[in-house]
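Researcher: Going back to the complex we discussed earlier. I've cleaned up the inputs and rechecked each line, so this should be the final set. Can you rerun the prediction on the complete assembly and write out the structure?
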Amino acid sequence: MPPWLSLMWTSFWPLLWAGLAFTVPLTLLSFAGGLALGFLTALTRLFAPAWLAAVARFYVWLIRGTPLMVQLFIIFYGLPSVGIVLDAFPAALIGFVLNVGAYTSEVLRAAILSVPKGQWEASYSIGMTWAQTMRRTVLPLATRVAVPPLSNSFIALIKDTSLAAAVTVPEMFQAAQRIASVTYEPLILYCETALIYLLFSSVLSTLQNRLEIRVARHVANPGHGR
Amino acid sequence: MIRLRGIEKSFGDLHVLKGIDLTIAEGSVTALIGPSGSGKSTLLRSVNLLELPQAGTMSLGDTTVTFHAGARPPTEQLYAVRRATGMVFQDFQLFAHRSVLGNVMESLITVHRWSYAQARERALSLLDKVGMRHKAEAWPATLSGGQQQRVAIARALAPSPRVLLCDEPTSALDPELAAEVVEVLGQLAKEGMTMLMATHDLRLAATIAHNVVFLDGGYVVETGSARDVFTRPSQARTAGFVASLRDALPDWSI
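Model: Rerun complete. Updated structure for the full complex:
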């Protein structure tokens, strides 16, 4: 076995382990939390009193207008100055949740707005309440619209979690840096890391495609548009 | 069974309904006719409170709603009215993510908490009535407009409303497809369903409606039996409008 291949082989397991132990959980938790926050933010912007909607708009503006890396540094390195000390993983998680929440809120808001007014009225006309209309009619229809852009956010997030290395989370990219610093083979290590990210993204893209087909099945029929 | 008194509705500066009085008897079929912008659609949508008038009162069965500008009627009145009325829309508005059967079952399951089996049974019998049982498992997007509208009628009838409101039910359909919808509505009328419909479709109004209400500029201009309004209207404005409808159908004779 050539030395570069054996280096890849021996470093593969620690890298994969760092990916499975930190990159994947950080991605999943950040996305779940961010989606929940984004949903609340979207509902607030659409349906809450004006002052509360303005708070939500301010949050989205603030997060989308500043770099994710700077946000993570403020949370992990900055907040201890005012007595808020967080471990690396929770600090990164909070940063990612805030970030994902801001971006997905815009996707969800647009998706909810895309549901025709007539579908709300049809629901009201059969006696449904606002909450029933939301749950039974608007959200299922909005989901169809939201899934493709949300999947993009999700795949972007997998890769963005590598920024957590900068706030000392021992995720996959940090593991690669550590190994590279002792083996002096940065090219091999970082290419290998890129390949593992590619693997993760590809698996998730496949799942995304299946989900898209599933949520769009009622419009994938012939005769649509009549 | 429905009594409207002094109904006023404005959208901003646009005064659409200017004190409408209207009474609809149980088992009667009333057609609202009038030019575009006359307020017939708004009036119809006010009856199931999709639009909230700013003044006036409405009685529907045992429920009386009094309207005030800027105030919503009490929630229990709102839902009592919505449950007592069914609505058929010009553009059908079937739930795109539910099958034909799912569309008809929705109110029974979600609003009335029926069991799945009971709801399914009632939905299938209603689909039978509108001739759509064979499409029970189909998605709305695969149906013709006439088929979609017949399913929409079944959906509106599912919770047994006391009155069926139809907002231009045939306007989005070509004449052949409109005919199948008119046939279904005619059958319902024969069975004694109380109906109020806004329509431009002379065939629909003349063959099904007992009473015709001519609206223009936010006022009720003329009310009478379908035959009287179409053959010997008492107001010049009505005569002009009816003539314009007839001109579209040169060999029409009523």
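Model: Worth noting: The first helix of chain B runs from residue 40 to 47.
Researcher: Good, that matches what I expected from the previous run.
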